[in-house]
Amino acid sequence: MLPPTIYFFCVFNLIAVTSNLLVRHYWFALTQFLLATMLALIAGKVILVTHRITFLDRFRGPPLIRPILFKTVFYSVVVALVRVLEVFSHLARDERGFHVAFRAELDAFTWQHFAVVQVWLFSSFLIYVGAVELSRELGPGKLWQLFFRR
After folding, report:
1. Do 37 and 13 touch, CB atoms closer than 8 A?
2. Which long-range CB contacts under 8 A does 89-93 form with residues at least 24 apart?
3. Could you say which DSSP state residue 21 is in?
4. Tens digit of pLDDT for each residue in 90-144?
5. Listed residue (59, 75, 71) closest to 11, CA to CA
6. 69: exposed, middle or buried (Cβ count in 10 Å: 0-12, 13-18, 19+)
7. CB atoms < 10 A from the CB of 148, how many?
8. What is the value of pTM for the model shown?
9. Domain residue spans of the chain
């Protein structure tokens, strides 16, 4: 569980810093850091659970691009849906009422910010899934040996 958690900790905090620079014009916010850290812990757990789902092994085997792209698209779509559901959960709990909160969220929504975060997420999932699939094909410990041993 530790490697995916560390990886997603770095990636989610990089996304948070990028979002803060683009939207808020500053680079650090404690709440964003804590949220990214919590999401990394959740992502580490979700990765462990999804490794057991046989549906994701549908395109197992060569060429490696098929399982890599399939899993990357799957993870990206799931994360996009979770992001949308997160916004709706905040709207449902808003004291101003759902309709007013929904209208305010629509006014604040920008496709550019949404797209930037989705591109970051897609790229990070592509790198992660690519490394996992390559490691699986090479055998246990071979990828580590290629990168960190002589």
Report:
1. yes
2. none
3. I
4. 667 767 777 777 777 777 777 777 787 788 889 988 998 898 888 888 888 888 8
5. 75
6. middle
7. 7
8. 0.74
9. 1-52, 61-150
Q: Are 78 and 70 within 8 A, CB to CB?
A: no
Q: What is the pLDDT of residues 52-78, one digit of tens each?
A: 777 777 777 778 898 889 888 888 888
Tokens of 70: 């399939």
Q: CA 24, CA 101: separation in Å to the nearest integer?
A: 21
With b for 16 or more beta-carbon neighbours within 10 A and e for fewer, the 8-31 pattern comes to bbebbbebbbebbeeeeeeeeeee
Which amino acid, residue 99?
H
In order of 60, 126, 140, the CA distances from 31 in angstroms are: 39, 27, 38
